[in-house]
Amino acid sequence: MLEDQTTAASAAPWPAAYPTGYAVVDVETTGLARDDRIVSAAVYRVDAQGEVEDHWYTLVNPQRDPGPVWIHGLTSSMLADAPLFKDIADEFAARLADRVLVAHNAVFDWSMIAREYARAERTAPVRQRLCTIALSKELRLPLPNHKLESLAAHFGVEQRNAHNALDDARVLAEAFRPSLRAAANGGVRLPLLECRPLTEWSDGPARIVRQPTGPGSASSSSSSYSSYSSYGQGSWRPSRKRPACPYPNPGRYEPGRPLQQGMRVAFSGDTSIERELLEDRAVEAGLHIATSVSRLTSLLVTNDPDSGTSKTTKARAFGTPVIDEAAFGQLLQDVAPAAEG
Predict the structure, then answer these.
(1) Which pLDDT score is estimated for 317?
(2) Cβ-proximal residues to 23 (8 Å cutoff; 6+ apart), any chain
(3) pLDDT of 256 above 90
(4) Does position 315 have pLDDT exceeding 70, yes or no?
(5) 3-state class of 324 per DSSP?
(6) Most exposed among 40, 41, 49, 251, judged by the fewest C-beta atoms under 10 Å?
(7) Which residues contact 126 (CB under 8 A, 6 or more apart)?
(8) Strand, helix or coil at 301?
(9) Phi, psi at residue 315, to the nearest 5°?
(10) What is the pTM of this model?
(11) How far apart are the first and last CA of the chain?
């Protein structure tokens, strides 16, 4: 069935608006916080129609505790002689140049890469990214969840070493090819998002966190990262008070329709992209950032709607629409102007 679909897709006229090349990326990290570091990275370069051209992999010395070894399997001793990020920045950049970055939950991989380049006083040569979670939603794939393993299983791709950057990138590249061809065959607009390079970064002092040992410490789920504490107080830019939103609140967000300037948006829980940057993008689009959820809140953005936080509880009580970070990123591409008058 997959072979038939792929053949049919490749026979259809290829959309002229599609990118001419992609860099399928996976990075493993010391954690999820804004001051965490990359410990390994892999890139599969693929052509306009998803065929693999070559691949590249490197370990990276994070200059700190490697974090959740029980997830990525990389110990301090294994990383001791690995190059620093600044030493592989040129090679990494060459692999990304003039291509769309493709990743599973791409906002996370892009955020980590952008931070590393900012620390190295460099700029990553990436202008657009494509999230395979968002693409699977556009294709309406019948997946039980948005894990990479589910996407791989759907397309019959074998996972050999989950949470190894090289194998995860391979799996994603193999699953991306039929996804891309299905999108082309169906005339689907690819969910491309802009990548904004970082130009400011400051690091706080690193704090060593002991690695858990003993029964129950191992986990194969990437959600284990969520409980891993931050090392320091690195930040993107100085904190500042936001100006008042100049647009009136048009009311609640309606699923299937675009966001509109003036809508009140609240956030709850961890986000893959640093929260302040995510809020900046919302403000630039003309949205109002709400610090709490009330009957006036237009939308709640959370990656864990079942968390039981006060915001998610209030959202359920008020009937406030709830979407995840990836869907919000898609909506930010095309925010409707405020109503006149």
Answers:
(1) 93
(2) 43, 44, 45, 46, 95, 96, 99, 100, 101, 102, 126
(3) no
(4) yes
(5) coil
(6) 251
(7) 23, 96, 99, 101, 110, 113, 114, 195, 197
(8) strand
(9) -60, -40
(10) 0.64
(11) 54
Show the tokens assigned to 218: 């191992």
- Our CA angle for 86, 26, 99, nearest 5°, is 80
Mean pLDDT across the chain: 83
Provide the residue type at 242 as one letter: R
Kindly report, residue by residue over 20-36, the tens digit of the pLDDT. 999 999 999 998 777 88
Q: How far is CA 69 from CA 65, 72, 220, 228, 302, in A?
A: 9, 5, 11, 11, 27
Query: What would the two tokens of residue 18 be?
Result: 């599609």
Within 8 A by CB and 6+ apart from 176, the residues are 22, 24, 46, 50, 102, 132, 135
Q: Which of 308, 326, 314, 316 is nearest to 290 (CA)?
A: 314
Distances (CA, A) of 39 to 13, 30, 44, 79, 131: 41, 7, 17, 8, 21
The length of the chain, given as a count of residues: 341
Could you tell me the two tokens for 209?
């966190």
pLDDT digits (tens, 9 = 90+) for 139-160: 999 998 888 999 999 999 999 9
